[in-house]
Amino acid sequence: MKLSILDQSPISSNQTAKDALDESLKLAQTGEALGYTRYWVTEHHDLPGLASSVPEVILSYIGANTKTIRIGSGAVLLPHYKPFKVAEIYNTLATLFPNRIDVGIGRASGGSAEVTNALSDNFLQNVYKMPSLVKDLLHFLDDDFPAEQEYSKISATPIPEVSPLPWLLGTSKKSALLAAENGIAYAFGQFMSNNDGPAIIREYLDAFTPRKQGQPAQVIITVSVICAETTEKANEISLSAIIWELQKAKGEGGRGIPSIKEAMQYKLDDREKDTFDKMKKNIIIGNPEEVKQKLIELQATNKADEIMLSTITYSAEDRRNSYKLIANELLMED
């Protein structure tokens, strides 16, 4: 089984943003040593508790301090940007770190309405233009605009020997079909969706048309996971991330991820208890054997080539340990 890492660069209540970004590097290095396939950074804007507003800068830092693990965006929020500039950025990364760069593409805003306005003009119009934006980006990455088209005389330099591998990220049939139509890989974000993942992935596989000869369909499914030596400890560790989400919903998450002690002291009202239970069901929590079985079942049900794990804990050591325990079960045996 292929496993990968999705990192949101979370900031705990006892950390600075610099601490969180340093921990992101440690996580990428740990993942590389353990045999994880890729490490992706998310893009979020003005969200307290996350330091991942500029993934391409973080990727430069990660790439310079790792050697083999694939690195990329999860995702570039394309409606905010011109495809040409995105291609320049990721071609540069692919030049610096040959055959290691993924460019994941998404259509979300990544923040509030105010942030969206601060980042870009005409965001909603660009969301509607997403199909053409994706096509333009792919042409820039491949440096193959047809001669009759507007951008045929320009290139997104530098042109790397191996182009970045494009992925489309999403949680809907629309995103799956857009990936299939363009013949690119698809990542389904189960960790942020209640949609029918297996059905959406089937839509992608059935509609897939290769962009290049011999290029296969590829599927990643991304899930939230917290693993510890015992089920009890894993459940305890998970409290911090879940309570933090509840705090953010009330505008109270500005201090970052609470400690386990702080999370235990948080008083839930009846509505929050229901939300807490639903959120917890959407996370794979358990000891190594329990998590292993759930991931094997998830891969089989979704026909995924790879599973990407997103883990948020208060303690950076607990987070790295979760990835280590899972790797010991599913990677070290391969």
Automatic annotation (TrEMBL):
GO terms for molecular function: oxidoreductase activity, acting on paired donors, with incorporation or reduction of molecular oxygen. It holds the Pfam family Bac_luciferase. Residues 1-300 form the Luciferase-like domain. InterPro entries: Bact_Lucif_Oxidored, CmoO-like, Luciferase-like_dom, Luciferase-like_sf. One of its GO terms (cellular component) is cytosol. To bacterial alkanal monooxygenase alpha and beta chains. This is LLM class flavin-dependent oxidoreductase. It comes from Psychrobacillus psychrodurans.
